[in-house]
Design brief:
- With about 290 residues, the protein is an alpha/beta fold.
- The chain has one domain: TIM Barrel.
- Helix content is about 40%, strand content about 15%.
- It has nine helices and ten strands.
- Strands 1-2-3-4-5-6-7-10 form an eight-stranded parallel β-barrel.
- The radius of gyration is 18 Å and the shape is globular.
- The two termini are about 20 Å apart.
Length: about 290
Amino acid sequence: MPKPAPLLGSHVSTSGGCAMSIERALSIGCTAMQIFVKNNMQWFASPLPASEAAAFREHARRAELRSVFGHTGYLINLAATNPDFHARSVRSLREELIRAAQLELPFLVLHPGAHMGAGAEAGLAQVVSSLDRIFEETPGNPVRIALEVTAGQGSTLGRTFEELAFILDHVEQTERLCVCLDTAHLFAGGHDISTPAGVKRTFASFDKLIGCDRLAALHLNDSKTALGSRVDRHEHIGKGRIGLEAFRFIMQQPRFRKIPKVLETPKGKEMLEDVENMALLRGLMDALS
């Protein structure tokens, strides 16, 4: 009996309408997909037309994608010290949660934020209070926030599992939170996942400090930058500093089979690079450890 296709895909453009992302993802063989729910470099957007949301939800081939989720815009910083910037961030995330609910997405991946010199402790407290406010203002919204581990560039929070655990432990409606792990961020942030022992040690630490039940998604990206560089630069699978061991481990582990795994590697309009990366990852499932 053949093995089921892995839950694997890519971040896909919604240009031309959200429903077009489904067409694009299926055209390259995705079984999972990540999208932005609006322009990722704009604070706000016009309300999502009901017809566009319905076209996405009711697409004839929507069920062929076994996992579809979103990623928040890059301007959002819940730890911002500037009052106007912080207010915009809170409003922007609140509106993205509403759009995600219209599209029936299970969660949105979010970079926790950057403390901008205020210090990690103050920054984490600001993130917690911001999420508490947003959740209070969106009662009944079923979309969860998946806190993404970061490379730790500048004053960015979320590089360590301890910082993510702090947010998870202190937000009042913690059931509305989960976690997304990015392999490039892990490596650049100082987690050596380039060896079999290292990747096992990293996930054992994650299980201990956060718990595998919190893991909602995996971003599979190699890293252009060195271990501990704290610089976030994605590279194609096997062509960066991480190598193949981390990806082999992830693709072969039974506990990750139901976790969506998506690429955020560089690509052109035809997404041929995604096709090559996914073929390599599928091959690692059967490769000898």
